[in-house]
Each structure stands twice: as C-alpha cells, then as structure tokens.
Amino acid sequence: MTKHDQVRFYKLATILVAIYIAFILLINLVIYRQQSATLKERRADYALIVKDADFKRQKWLQQNKLQVVTSQSPQHTKLERSVADVLNRDHTTRNFSVRQKIDGRWYLVAVHQSSQPTFVLLMPQQRFWHTWPEIALTVTVLYLLFSLIVLWQFKRQRSHFYEHLKILVANIHHIRYEETPEPIIFQKDASLYVLAHEVNQLNKDMRHMRQKIAIQQGSFDRLIDHLPVGVMVINENRQVVLHNEAMGQLLETAIEPQKHPYIDDIKTYELTRMIEHTFRYRRSHHQEIQLIQNRERFVDANVVQLNTVKSKFQALVILYDLTDIRRVEQMQLDFVSNVSHELKTPVTAITGFAETLLAGAKDDPETLQQFLKIIYEESTRLTALIQDILALSHLDRQDQTQAQDIGLKAIVEANLELMQQKIQQKEIHVSVNIPETLTFKTQKMKLNQVLKNLIANGITYNKQAGSLVIAAQVDHQQLIIRVVDSGLGIPSDLQERIFERFYRVDQARATHKSGTGLGLAIAKEITESIGGQLTVESQLGVGSQFILTFPLT
Length: 553
Known about the structure:
Strand content: 15-25%
CATH class of the largest domain: Alpha Beta
Number of helices: 15
CATH superfamily of the largest domain: PAS domain
Number of strands: 17
Helix content: 40-55%
Distance between the termini: 78 Å
Mean pLDDT: 81
Low-confidence stretches: 506-513
Shape: rod-shaped
CATH architecture of the largest domain: 2-Layer Sandwich
Number of domains: 3
C-alpha cells in the first residue's frame, strides 16, 4: 500500500477502536441509569420498611447488594467517613443521589434525610465487564474479529485496486509502444471499470489508427520506391531517415536503412554544400550538378526545407537524373554535325563538278562522261544518306504495326533478288540455309529493314568473288539468324563502335565511299525495338558474322 492508504488504514482502525469504546461507554451509561433508578426505589422502600421492628434489614440489604450508613454510625472506615463528607456537603437537601469514589471504587450514594434518623444507601457502580463478563467477552471477541475482517478486506481491496491499476498503467505503456496489452476484466460496479473500458477502447482506436497509418505508410513507401527520382530526407542531426532505391542507384552506394550521417552516402562536394546551406540559411536550393563517382552523372538537385522549427527541421533532397537527357542532347548535336558533314561532301562534289562542266568542261566528251558519272554516284550516295536519315527518324516514332507470322526464307530471298546486280558485279557466292517451314511472328517491315541492311553490308564490304551465307535455326527457344561474309573484317577494338551512327572503320571508309555509316546503327536500333539482339563476331582479313537473336517465348 501507498503512504496515503496506510494513513487511511490507521484511520479506519482508530475509528473501529473508537466505536468499541463508545459502545462500552454507552452500555455503562445504561447500566448506571438503571442502577440509579433502582437505588432511588430501594431508598424509598428502605425508608418505609425500616420502621418495622421485625424487618430483617441485613438480609434485605444483602439481597439487593446494598450497604447502609446512618448518622449514628461511627466513622471508623473510609466508607463511613466518605458518607459523612457527603452529608456535610449537601445537608441542605433532604433526599439526593450522588456518585462517589470511595477507596478507589465508585459507589452510587442515595441519601435520605427526615425526622427519623438519616440513612444513606450505597450500591457499588456496576460496569459492563462486571455485570455481564461472559457477554462482554463474547461481544469484544466478535467485534475484534469483525474489525480484523474489515481491515483485511480494506487492505485486500486496496491491494487489488493497485494491482489492477498497475495493469492498466502497464497497458497504457504497451499501447504507447505498440505492444500487446494484458487483458483484464472488471465487474460493472468496480471502481476501475470506467477507466478499464476507456483503456480498452483506446487500444482498439490506436490499433485501428496504426493499421491505417501502416497502410498509408506502405503506400507511401511503395510510391517513394517506385519514383524515378532519388529521394532522401535528412533530419536536424544530419542523419538520413528516409531514402528510396533510386537515390542509392544515383549515388552508386548501398544506403543503410538505419539512421546514419548523410556524408556516408553523399561524396559530391556541390551536393553537400547545398545541403549545408539549406540547414544554415533555412531556405531551399536548386542547382544542376555533376555527381563524382564511377559513372558520370548529371542530376537536377533540389534541397528543400520541410519546416522552420529548429528542433524539427528536416531537409528533403531530390535528385532527377539528367544523364540520358544530356546524352541525347549531345547525340543530337553530334548527329546534326555528322549529318552536316556527310551531306556537305556529296553536295560539294556535285556543285563543284557541275560548275566545272558549266565553265566549259562539258565540251570535252571524255571529261563530260567522267564528271557526269561522279555526279551520279554522289547523288546516289546523297539519296541513300537521306533515306537512312528518314529511317532513323521513323524509329523515334511510336509504331503501332501489329506482329504477324512471316516466312523468314521468303524475306531473305526477296532482298537478295533486289541486290542481284551488286552480287553479280562482285561475283559473290550466296548461300541461304533456312528451312522453308521456319516462320517468325514479328513486325514484317522492321525485320525486313534489318535483313536488308545486314545483307547490303555483307555485299558492300565483301571481297571480290567472296561468299555470303545467310542461315537461321531455332535453338533453346531462340531464333538465331546469321549473316556471314568473307569480307574485310573488323578489328576487335572497333567491333562495338560499328553500331554507332555515322561510324565507319577507316579502311572501309577509304575503300568504299558509298556507305553512309548508318546502316548498322539502324539495324541494331530496329532489332532492339522488336525485342531482339544484334551482335558481331569478326576477324580482320577473314570476314564478319552478324548474329540476330530473337526469343520465341
């Protein structure tokens, strides 16, 4: 029990003792009044019967437990002297009754004064314990048991009260820290029933609220994780409290889920400076920066203040990857530059030779024939270049063409038929190893463009009287198409670059001026757009093998 309950316990015990004392005093008072009334009656009776000479006074006094003292009695004893003092003090009163303590004991004294000899009746004052000792003992024992039961019940109730109160306090603690509270049942008349009911209701409400928060937090986390931008939240202690996967990919580091200093993840000075300025000046910052790491990345960085309270200040870091945009912009610039260069060469040649012919060279038949041939070749090259540029522009558009089953061998033979003149001029031996029944579901026009570019490349850069093999087979749920030539070959260090726009191997550029440098780039981009892959295997001076791979599942 608490000190307050101990005080209440002692007060209750004191009250029970006081009730017992008051009860004894009340019983004693009742006995006193009864004795006083009896003594007055006996005084009147004694005054009448004392006149009778035959009256046996001693026997009557013993039966009524009385003592008598007269005015003629000698004053030898304390009792007689005390009675004399009473008579001397109250001699003016004829008949009276008093209570007198004589020799350590209380007596009820009834005085009768008349013409006859004055007498005094004395009766020892009776007490509850003297009058009914057995009853008094029984009552006392019963009351003592009752008091002990009351005190024990009080202590028990207070003990149960505090036990239940501790459970309720513990339950509130559990609810606060998202733990399971201990179940407890109260009767409706219990003192803590209302509190227990409210705690249980609070637990239900908090559980429901936490479920809603968990659902919302889960949705928010999924949203953050799927954002294409990097997100990081830094608290007032410069610690990372929230991040998404995109941020780790941009920073090229594994960000720990636990709180940790942000400088463990961010190594770029410009970004660190933006974050520190946001904390220092309490305002947002925006800047395009370059992240210093293994891979060059350009990002649009925003560091936003989330609130202005110092103890709760947080900074939100948002990184938007601009690398692909800047790469595309650079590719567009390079493309325009390359197109300008590639267009300038044939246009300049056509203009120059035309001006020469107009200046008088047309009068020489041999020169006229030579210049016209050059003008025709350059115009043909210019036409091919424009067609390839148009083909590249079509690749950037959304193609809604539906896939269809096509016969692969028929497409290859149709392209070979169109290039038959070039094949005959270079005396190339062509071999087609494709089953008649082999079909493939794809966009026909795109696949035809890829095969056309690869076959044209195999003819253009093949040697005189060389060979060209076109084969196809199905292997492990994949369609593999091979275009193998016996041409010049490509150095191993340049094999990856041949798929770049306007790139041509130097030896090929010097020997074959009809190429635009876009055919393989177009073939690779189209192949990837229809779900395939284009690779090359080549050996310098031996030939090249271009491999198309398409999944069939």
